[in-house]
Design goal:
Layout: E1 2-8, E2 11-16, E3 26-35, H1 38-46, E4 48-49, E5 52-53, E6 58-59, E7 63-71, E8 83-86, H2 96-99, E9 128-132, E10 136-138, H3 145-148, H4 151-164, E11 171-175, H5 179-190, E12 195-200, H6 203-211, E13 216-219, H7 224-228, E14 237-242, H8 247-256, E15 257-265, H9 276-282, E16 285-288, H10 295-304, E17 314-319, H11 323-330, E18 338-342
Parallel strand pairs: 11-12, 11-14, 12-13, 14-15, 15-16, 17-18
Antiparallel strand pairs: 1-2, 1-6, 3-7, 3-9, 3-18, 4-5, 7-8, 8-10
């Protein structure tokens, strides 16, 4: 089978790998769609992120969906021919964090396409994937396999919503409108947000943000005063989803959050300076959010039921042999929102 393998920065190769067989409780899946994530782009462009580096060849990818081709012994709730979205979250379910229901912090997590441990956890950008049966969630008739592949990044934002608490009737600010920021808009709307304002520095992504449900968008590069106006009377927003990883965006959000509001940090960036006086004076709660676990099933259900529409976010599909072009396109924010690979 063909697989997409990273060897180092700008060293992406299409390689032949031997197929595997499904064991007891496992499923063989023909992968048909895979979305390129921000972490995939970090591996491609920089060979890693932060202190995490690629130290051996690694198959990339974790946003995937496909069709069941074979069942291992004991799998009864799936059938050959079923289309499934595959959760990349594979916790051990035995460590202290798993036993507390905090699987996203599993001490022995085997998350697809991760260079954090050594040997690396191989990813899912391959033509055939062996997965545990509980990773597989059926895709409804009428839902495309490309929509199904959005379940993973959508689950990330659903976990962020869970960290924020109830959004019913709340005014929400989303800073950074890349794929995760855009999906945060969709997730916030599905959870009852009263008003959603989105910011970015590029009009192309802001146009997409309005298309998928933002009430107002602000280009903070060309009209910074438009956001600062929300700072009157100690602030306007109840919740901020910070999806840019930019310190300036976080600080701008703190100025327009009202007292006792919540800032949920989704974006990954470098070290930033935090204005502690603002956080203390306004009693703002800052919360991190990392991956997901049970939210993956909810993401698939919401997509299956047509309660959310992720289709506008798909801006390109490339064949596996054009993987390098796909990664280059995915890294161009002026042209691409979510780029997927076809296997």
């Amino acid at each position: 089978m063909k697989a997409i393998v990273i060897h180092g920065a700008k060293d992406l190769r299409i390689e032949e790998r031997p197929p595997e067989a499904a064991g007891a409780g496992q499923v063989e899946i023909a992968i048909e769609a895979g979305g390129i994530c921000g972490s995939d782009l970090h591996y491609y462009n920089h060979g890693g992120f932060g202190a995490i580096r690629v130290r051996e060849p690694m198959i990339l990818g974790h946003e995937v969906a496909g069709t069941v081709k074979a069942l291992g012994e004991g799998v009864s709730h799936l059938a050959v021919g079923d289309r499934v979205a595959v959760s990349p979250s594979r916790p051990c379910n035995a460590c202290d964090y798993c036993l507390k229901g905090q699987q996203s912090h599993c001490l022995n997590m085997r998350f697809y396409g991760s260079a954090m441990p050594m040997p690396h956890i191989q990813g899912a950008f391959r033509q055939r994937l062996i997965a545990e049966h509980w990773q597989c969630h059926k895709v409804a008739d009428g839902i495309s396999i490309n929509e199904a592949a959005f379940a993973e990044p959508f689950a990330v934002t659903l976990h962020a919503v869970a960290r924020a608490g109830s959004l019913l009737g709340k005014r929400v600010l989303v800073t950074g409108c890349g794929p995760i920021g855009a999906l945060a808009i969709i997730a916030a709307r599905a959870h009852g947000a009263r008003e959603i304002v989105a910011t970015d520095v590029m009009d192309t992504v802001l146009n997409k943000a309005r298309e998928i449900g933002a009430d107002r968008t602000i280009n903070v590069a060309s009209e910074p005063e438009a956001l600062s106006a929300y700072g009157a009377n100690k602030g306007y927003f109840d919740v901020q989803f910070e999806a840019s990883g930019n310190g300036q965006a976080m600080r701008a959000g703190l100025e327009v959050l009202k007292p006792r509001s919540v800032l949920v940090q989704l974006g990954l960036g470098g070290d930033v300076t935090i204005p502690q006086n603002v956080i203390v004076a306004k009693e703002i709660e800052m919360k991190g959010t990392f991956r997901f676990h049970e939210e993956f099933g909810l993401a698939v259900d919401l997509i299956n039921q047509g309660r959310v529409d992720v289709k506008p976010l798909l801006t390109g599909i490339y064949g596996i042999d054009d993987a390098v072009a796909a990664f280059d396109a995915a890294g161009d924010r002026s042209k691409s929102m979510k780029v997927q690979l076809s296997f």
